[in-house]
Amino acid sequence: MAAYLIVTAQIHDRARFLSGYAPAAAALTERFGGEYVLRAPGAEVLEGEHPGGSVVVSRWPDRTAALAFWNSPEYAEARTLREGIADCQVLIVEAPAP
User: Fold this and answer.
1) What is the distance between the alpha carbons of residues 61 and 94, in angstroms, rounded to a whole number?
2) pTM of this structure
3) Less Cβ around it within 10 Å: N or C end of the chain?
4) CB 60 within 8 A of CB 66
5) Nearest to 86 by CA among 34, 25, 45, 4
6) Phi-psi map region of 48: left, alpha, beta (phi>0 left; psi -120 to 50 alpha)
């Protein structure tokens, strides 16, 4: 079953985010078998407490693949590139069976 990582982010320094973390994460996403479904700034909250910001949705072959990426030493290193420049919330969800 396909799995999705859904990230919402408040990015405080977009230039640093786009020059450091974003390309590193994109390369690892591809390497670990994921693909981006959506990467966009400007999310507007219509209901709830989240402040809005940027949204990234990536699709993975399954939950195991998504977690292999998320828990990899390579991604742990890449994640340090967004420390102090972005506040993120990350969710994982499996697509329901057809």
Assistant:
1) 10
2) 0.91
3) C
4) yes
5) 25
6) left
The whole-angstrom separation of Cα 98 and Cα 90 is: 25
Give the chain's mean pLDDT. Answer: 95
Torsion sign, CA atoms 26, 31, 34, 35: positive
The owner of tokens 């977690």 is: 67
Pick from 77, 63, 62, 5: which is nearest to 38 by CA?
A: 5
- What letter does residue 30 receive in the DSSP assignment? H
Beta-bridge partner residues of 4: 59, 93
Residue with tokens 């977009």: 14
